[in-house]
Amino acid sequence: MCGIVGFVxxxxxxxxxxxxxxxxxxxxxxxxxxxxxxxxxxxxxxxRQGKLQRLVEALTTxxxxxxxxxxxxxxxxxxxxxxxxxxxxxxxxxxxxxxxNGIIENxxxxxxxxxxxxxxxxxxxxxxxxxxxxxxxxxxxxxKTAVERAEARLTGAYxxxxxxxxxxxxxxxxxxxxxxVVGLGERTNYLASDFTxxxxxxxxxxVLDNGDLAVIRPWSVEIHDANGVAVERPVLHIDWTLxxxxxxxxxxxxxxxxxEQPEAWADCLLGRIERGRVVEEALGLxxxxxxxxxxxxxxxxxxxxxxxxxxxxxxxxxxxIPVEVDVASEFRYRRPLLEPGTLVVAISQSGETADTxxxxxxxxxMGLKVWAVTNTVGSTLAREADTVGYTYAGPEIAVASTKxxxxxxxxxxxFAIALAQxxxxxxxxxxxxxxxxxxxxxxxxxxxxxxxxLGQELAQHRDVFFIGRxxxxxxxxxxxxxxxxxxxxxAEAYAAGELKHGTLALxxxxxxxxxxxxQPELADKAISNVLEVKARGARVWAVVSANLSGVxxxxxxxxxATAPLLAPVxxxxxxxxxxxxxxxxxxxxxxxxxxxxxxVTVE
Length: 603
Ligand code: M6R
Fold this sequence. Notes:
Largest sheet: 8 strands, antiparallel
Helix content: 25-40%
Structural class: alpha/beta
Number of helices: 20
Strand content: 15-25%
Bound molecules: 5-amino-5-deoxy-1-O-phosphono-D-mannitol
Number of strands: 27
CATH superfamily of the largest domain: Aminohydrolase, N-terminal nucleophile (Ntn) domain
Low-confidence stretches: none
CATH topology of the largest domain: Glutamine Phosphoribosylpyrophosphate, subunit 1, domain 1
Strand order of the largest sheet: 3-2-4-1-10-9-11-15
């Protein structure tokens, strides 16, 4: 997820607007930033690795004036965060500039083709193919037609803005899946990834549809749909405050990030499954490397560790390869016995967790190969590991991890299928079902309105228990952590069959128990455990797959039926929302819970 902005007007205020807009979009990415402004028939381009402030400082001594420009704040996906990889990206002669959000899936093929035709590439990004395609298709003469022709060559989910030195009064914009909105001003129009960027200047806006191509001038906005037909899109009046707009209108980043999950899952899956097979290279691994793996050890902390617990079941079930999962702070000190043929999988949203990094160093000292599962391109983990699979969830701002967790599980699911493929076992149906998860996620989110009330109820209690078996136990552990960390209630997760070995003593009249039942094979046993706690007076709320019946809970929270191995990503959503609404009911600081930091870079 990156932030893009554009300005085209009759006065020369492009630069101040671009910097202000980028500052408002910095929550979408902050590893580098850049702008391009058309100035006297040439492009002035400035880009800096690091926070936006570095770019602002670089521009204080220049006198860039222009009435048309584009800007970008980056969350790296393809290519490390460097000055060269920052956007805008340019054609060979620096006369066409492009800023882009999303992923161009087929960029390697296009890059090879363009290089063979003599184009000179300067970055590692997927984006750079766009300005070179525009150059190839005559963008300096007719920018709109060149964009149409280039767009027909691209696959992926993205939005981009293009300007050229020869068109000082227009921006051509394309939206395919990634968000893009137009702000309508007085003889000035704006473009941005979301309304926040231009709300101080105008509240009249048009949301581009998927497949739209728009030509924006100071006095006009022409929109063509995916079939090239000129269309009018409704003009909206946005009455959010600036603060609300930054969070997409949601009261907290956590809720925004929970709601973003279907989009994050689609980004994570993009280009990784083809014709019922996982594309190994798209995970950062080769079929040969996967074939050589005899054992897997996963190391991580907190929520990422819980993703590893899900990953263990997936890999063992699908690939039949033994997996250990370890909390990084334990792994690094317990002198683990690791033999050749072991792949160490280090999972970390930030890629900066000190204990996880120390575990990686230890594994490397022992001569083992490390595969990183991380959300952060350019992080220490991404640099230290031998190879990386990115989760592509976009920046996660709330301390409580939500979309990073479910994308970690998705990537581990793909890893499990790829490992099975290497053993000669393909799972084409399962791979296809994985692709339907973003849609299923949307329906879970729209069905969860009632959890608000359950959160209010839960907020009245002191202790909450989570129970489940198999994958549901792994998920229960994440459910209790979410609740604890933002609502400050005491919560514990138990393997449901373990209750009678001690914890059952704590169950008394009215104690809330959240039971998770998504695994048909274990359903009868899990139902007995629900009966056990109910017999002691517990009030049971059950997250249940729609294909399981007869669960004797006080309240059912159904999720759509899917392959049992894929249920955790869907079942995670009600657990996240339950924690969220409980914390809100208690009036806690949801996004910044006490005593916690987003990234734990110390031991
Ligand atoms: O950045 P990481 O994934 O390495 O962070 C690990 C944990 O600190 C993190 O998952 C933490 O448990 C979450 N904030 C909990 O929601």
